[in-house]
Write a structure and sequence with these properties.
By secondary structure, the protein is of the alpha/beta class.
Length: 610
């Protein structure tokens, strides 16, 4: 299972799982009016500010024992060996020096220890966050990346405070599939140049990048190409290494091979760096050391000092203020946190032991990881599916395993950064290509073309996938969401009406029943008017009943049209339009009068002649 599968959980998770967003988020459905007393509001507010609720570590740390510590240590070290090479590689996707990926891995792991609720979740840089970061900050100073992480964290905190986690439901499974598949192709296309040792060109989109690589194939560096292909082959071989000795034959050997397989990224990067170091030190050209392939270059050691992200930056001699940077980031201020929340909540749902996730707390945790991380120059972060799967398979007991991963990352920043200089860029490209290859899910097109999938599902996938490749992932995601909303909007906006016969209580007369579905909004009143008047003309002798049992929303325009419709039905001689199963709040708003058969509209009293 690869890092790129972090959003595939959305398409494969059991439908029985659901999110519980804490006690303060549960709807009080006992009263149709949804009234809340002042004391209840204060109690809900105090529950939301409870330290044990916002710092879950205060709950489980009291039961922490030696067995938990040993399990977390093993899981944390294993996770760190996966996280370090991935973080270095993901920073290159975002167009950043490698240390920025390590900053994000360190701060994300450390903060989630205190605020996280799901022990398996690993917060840090991911391929999706890196690509989105590149989309909005390419060609701009590093400060824009830090501001994007800071702003994304604030948006995630606001989503938690206002319980807006449901917004991720507007991204359907076909759109998620198209988005991740397009992201995989874009990342693979962008890394082909590094794999072949070609100088990086200006990013002009997926097709322009691929064409640029194909047109310069003759300029490929032999050393980079051979090393890159060799690294891909070795990574794939190590991925399937545990299958050589099944657990049924020798469990200890299978377990050892499994740990080697989990550490394959770190092993390949280490071996490549050692090879490069050997070649550099053994080959000199006029007294200057050379290597047969391009290297990562110098990486700044250590964790940077605390620095508040809200500050101005100098760009080409011009001062750009913090608000101006926010304006330039544009839709990234919404899309980056939205995708981060989508990934993190999906991963939390997939690994939660009881299938129930406090999504509000997860939003707070993710927001704090980004806000605090931005103060230490970290790039935007979210949950990573592969790293979370590694934690789960390693027997993690509590979120404290993230502390050991963070310490290992800190060790790498403090001690190993001089050696990161020798990591070949083609090796990082190989790590990224093998990681995102499993994101490609083109087989879903065949499934979307068959029932029970709707035509809009296939259309949404196609539009999202194509626009992502042509115009960018942020535009493609928005277009895919817009197309996928067409079907629910058709039912909500246009509405649907069914007719049948029914006999009301305490009445032997058969009535014609007209039943609006879901909602009655101003855009759907014409359809209801047509259905009601058609029934009134067809059988004027039978009374008409409007069954409101399935109505969940009613706007002012629809309420006004209902009164006018009652008058028109009366002029056809069909008697009063009777409403049944009407909510108590609507009865007052519509000024209905209760009768033995149901509710009818009140008529103005006739003016007296006296």
């Amino acid at each position: 299972m690869e890092e790129a599968e972090e959003l595939r959980a959305l398409r494969q998770e059991p439908s029985g799982r659901r999110i519980t967003i804490g006690r303060e988020d549960l709807d009080d459905r006992k009263d149709d009016s949804h009234t809340t007393t002042t004391s209840t509001r204060w109690r809900t507010l105090l529950e939301g500010l409870d330290p044990k609720r916002r710092l879950p570590i205060l709950t489980w740390i009291r039961k922490y024992d030696g067995a938990d510590a040993l399990s977390d240590l093993i899981a944390g070290v294993t996770l760190g060996l996966t996280m370090i090479p991935q973080s270095i590689a993901y920073a290159t996707i975002a167009g950043l020096p490698s240390q920025y990926g390590l900053y994000a891995a360190f701060m994300g792991s450390l903060v989630y220890v205190f605020c996280g609720t799901v022990r398996e979740v690993s917060i840090g840089p991911t391929s999706l966050m890196s690509l989105l970061t590149l989309e909005y900050t390419a060609g701009r100073p590093v400060q824009y990346v830090i501001v994007l992480a800071f702003a994304a964290g604030l948006v995630e905190l606001a989503m938690g405070a206002f319980r807006l986690g449901f917004l991720v439901c507007f991204i359907s499974a076909p759109v998620t599939s198209a988005f991740t598949s397009a992201t995989a192709l874009i990342i693979i296309g962008a890394q082909l140049g590094n794999l072949l040792g070609l100088p990086r060109t200006v990013d002009g989109g997926f097709f322009a990048t691929v064409w640029s690589v194909l047109s310069r194939l003759a300029d490929s560096a032999t050393g980079d190409t051979l090393l890159g292909i060799g690294c891909i082959v070795l990574l794939l071989a190590l991925q399937y290494l545990p299958r050589l000795v099944p657990a049924t034959r020798s469990r200890p050997v299978h377990r050892a091979l499994w740990y080697v397989s989990l550490s394959r990224n770190a092993l390949v990067v280490l071996l490549s760096a050692l090879l490069a170091h050997h070649l550099v030190t053994s080959n000199t050209d006029g007294g200057k050391a050379t290597a047969p392939f391009r290297l990562s270059g110098r990486i700044e050691p250590g964790i940077p000092a605390f620095e508040w992200p809200v500050r101005d930056v100098i760009v080409n001699g011009t001062t750009v203020t913090f608000p101006q940077m926010l304006v330039e980031l544009g839709s990234g201020l919404v899309l980056v946190p939205l995708v981060a929340v989508l990934a993190n909540v999906a991963i939390a749902k997939a690994f939660a032991s009881d299938g129930v996730v406090d999504a509000t707390q997860e939003l707070f945790a993710l927001g704090l990881c980004n806000v605090i991380g931005s103060c230490f120059r970290a790039m935007p972060t979210t949950g990573a599916f592969t790293r979370s799967a590694v934690s789960h398979a390693s027997g993690v007991r509590t979120p404290l395993a993230g502390l050991y991963s963070a310490l290992l990352t800190l060790l790498a920043l403090g001690v190993l950064t001089p050696y990161f200089y020798y990591i070949p860029r083609t090796t990082l490209a190989a790590v990224l290509i093998t990681a995102v290859a499993s994101m490609l899910d083109l087989g879903i097109v065949r499934r979307l073309a068959r029932p029970p999938a709707l035509r809009t599902d296939l259309l949404a996938w196609t539009v999202c996938f194509a626009v992502c490749l042509v115009q960018g992932v942020e535009v493609g995601l928005l277009c895919g969401m817009a197309v996928s909303l067409l079907e629910p909007l058709r039912h909500w906006v246009g509405g649907s009406v069914s007719t049948s016969g029914m006999t009301l209580a305490d009445s032997a007369t058969v009535h014609r029943c007209i039943r609006p579905e879901v909602g009655l909004l101003y855009t759907g009143v014409d359809r209801l008017r047509t259905a009601v008047l058609a029934e009134a003309r067809r059988q004027p002798a039978l009374p008409l009943v409007l069954d409101c049992e399935r109505l969940v929303v009613l706007d002012y325009s629809a309420a006004r049209v209902l009164r006018e419709l009652a008058d028109e039905v009366a002029r056809y001689g069909a008697g009063p339009l009777v409403l049944v199963n009407v909510r108590s709040g609507w009865c007052r708003a519509l000024e209905l009068h209760q009768t033995d058969e149901g509710y009818v509209f009140k008529r103005p009293e006739p003016a007296s002649n006296g």
